[in-house]
UniProtKB/TrEMBL annotation:
Protein's membrane topology: Single-pass type I membrane protein
Protein name: Ig-like domain-containing protein
GO cellular component: bicellular tight junction; cell-cell contact zone; plasma membrane; protein complex involved in cell adhesion
Regions crossing the membrane: 240-262
Organismal lineage: Eukaryota, Metazoa, Chordata, Craniata, Vertebrata
Domain Ig-like: 25-130, 137-221
Amino acid sequence: MRGGKMAMVRLLACFVLYISLGHIPSSLSVILRTTDKIVWANEFEAIELTCLIESISTNNPRIEWKKIKNGVPSYVYFQSKIAGDLEHRAQLREPANILIFNATRSDTAEYRCEVAAIDDQKDFDEILISLAVRVKPVVPRCSVPDAVTVGTSTELRCLENEGFPAPQYRWYHNNEELPHEPKASPRFTNSSYSINPDTGSLKFQRVKKDDAGEYYCQAKNDAGVAQCPGMVMEVYDVDILGIFLKSFGAVVVFFCVSFTICHTCRRGCFNKKGHENSYNWPPQNNGTDYGDTDEGHFRHKSSFII
Ligand SMILES: *[C@@H]1O[C@H](CO)[C@@H](O)[C@H](O)[C@H]1NC(C)=O
Ligand SMILES: *[C@@H]1O[C@H](CO)[C@@H](O)[C@H](O)[C@H]1NC(C)=O
């Protein structure tokens, strides 16, 4: 009699606890767990996404995996078979893990493990895992001007688009790494450069003679590193003779053109006699190439015909 009462009280206590906590006893729930919700893998290596079943009472639960990319879900494990993007590239491992044999960059996505256990009171649970596949950088594209004039500004560029996560860039001058801040090294303390490690830009405010030499850039992320071949940048002194010749050439051409115009004009006046004005202007720029004076690419290439 007493035993029965005690049992009743205990049952009641359990029930009150159950109501107050809003909990279903875990022995009647399917509960999933994972070792990592955010998983990083290297491209072309194996990776396992874990879906551990912490508690379950159903014998043959239904296991499904979905891949969610850009908000669009698709099956990768369905009706006890690997399907979709992972077909022939993965397998299911006890209890509900998925093993990708050879991860590729297109596997970067969210994956959802879903387990339905009909004999459990709480008969469904799911777990979301995000997978990011690291990709090694490829050889970056670098641009280094062949020749710049002392005192001008110039920019060297380096760009790599494959690596994931996005690589960080480093520049080397005559095989020595340029510190991000020139002041950080006595060797480069007189240089006026600045580096943006995120964009790969190496900018010189005012190029100095010492900045001449071979440059290459390196793109690096957690998956690897790649660099472009070295390219030589020459630094010239201001070309005073060149500037003089250019100005002189321009003056000479101006006089030639003026003379030709006057000459033609006078002849035109003689020929006029009742005709319409038919001046025949000579082309004005023939014989002079004023050169390319882009910043940092100053080059002397005047060629004038007198
Ligand atoms: C993974 O796939 C890549 C390209 O599809 C292939 O080159 C590589 O050999 C594979 N690696 C392994 C370990 O199977
Ligand atoms: C930097 O410039 C100063 C002053 O012009 C000079 O004394 C020094 O030797 C230079 N340093 C280097 C590393 O060229």
